[in-house]
Amino acid sequence: MSGPTDRLTPRSVRRGAALACVFAGVLMSGAATGSWVEDPEPGGGGWAGRAPGEAAGDDSAPRDAGDAARLVSRSGDRWAAAYSPQEYERLRLSLEGEYVGTGIAVSRTPDGRIVVGEVHAGSPAEEAGILPGDEILTIDGAGLDGGAVTDAVGRLRGSDLPTAAGPGSTVLLGLARAGERWETEVARARLTAETVTVTREVPGVTRIHVSSFSRGAADQLREAVERVPAGDAVLLDLRGNGGGLLTEAARAASVFLDGGLVATYDVHGDQRALHAEPGGDTGTPLVVLVDGGTMSSAELLAAALQDRNRAVLVGSRTFGKGTVQMPSEQPDGSVAELTVGHYVTPSGRTVDQERPVEPDLPVGAGEDAEAKARTVLAGLA
Asked: Which residues are known catalytic residues?
């Protein structure tokens, strides 16, 4: 499974692990004074998480976030984040399932090399002849020097530049394949994110990985489930899923539930509920893979399927973020995300760092989570 990708990592590496959960709350008209009206539906989740215990308003805040940065620094809200107008627009596009990038997903090998994990079909990277497995040696002439994968992601996207690179901008890549080295210039373009991928590595089990809950993810998941061969069990992989829209997570739950409660949440004390639509697939054996990278609305989905006895959870404890944020546009155009409430699972559980979603079957260090999940599926079948 590929690691971080230039198409779904919305922030610069200079903010790194200090990223607050983005779009982790409700994008709703009139839900809070000064809220930025973006969507009539509640949203939640996040692409990346602030490191546990890290205070909001630290040096990672963007210098051009202005009023939002000052508001966040005064809030004492650990999940708060401040964005410049340009940053927030990039995040909005990401949540809509769009991104500006080359179409390369990258991952790190055990020996520390950065390699191409996937190439988006029809992307500039594919047109440039880049293939999965190619090693990335340099980006715009600068070596990767054992840096974080997120560094490579930010440089591929151009989000590390003072002014974010847009469609039509280019990046010069130094690559290696089978002992051959070369450089190629790759354009950036506005592309559609592929949030759902399907593999069938062993007979009888279809693995569906959902990387985020951007808009349209639930429809992609439903289409993937409808194409599962008759008699197959489903392995729903939510590992590394940083979240997204709460409504997309609820609609994803509808794929496997026949109506009923998915979660409740509050916005400044105003209680609301998310329900699954009737008619979901309730018969196919289902296991959900989770880990510490399963966050926010992805945790909501996993917990709902667990509470409703629809799926067995396998893996390790999730990240632990059940808070809801609201974006608020400031006078200078910057945007602050502040916590306005929490969500609760169907059984009444709250999710936080001390009480993350626990798997039904934990996977220990060195164990193969997918192999253990397939064993469980065999028993369910």
From this structure: 296, 307, 321
Q: How far apart, in Å, do the first and last CA atoms of the chain sit?
A: 25
Q: Is 144 exposed, middle or buried (0-12, 13-18, 19+ CB in 10 A)?
A: buried
DSSP 8-class letter at 17: G
User: pTM score, two decimals?
Assistant: 0.71
Residue 248 backbone dihedrals phi, psi, to 5 degrees: -70, -40
Per-position b or e across 232-268, b if 16+ CB within 10 A of its CB:
bbbbbbbbbbbbbbbbbbbbbbbbbbeebbbbbbebe
Q: Which amino acid is at 323?
A: T
User: Which segments of 13-65 does DSSP mark as H helices, in order?
Assistant: none
Beta strands 335-344 and 323-329, pairing class:
antiparallel
Write out pLDDT tens, residues 14-67.
Answer: 222 222 232 322 222 222 221 111 222 333 433 222 222 222 222 333 346 789
Retrieve residue 18's tokens: 């200090």
Are 150 and 157 a contacting pair, CB within 8 Å? no
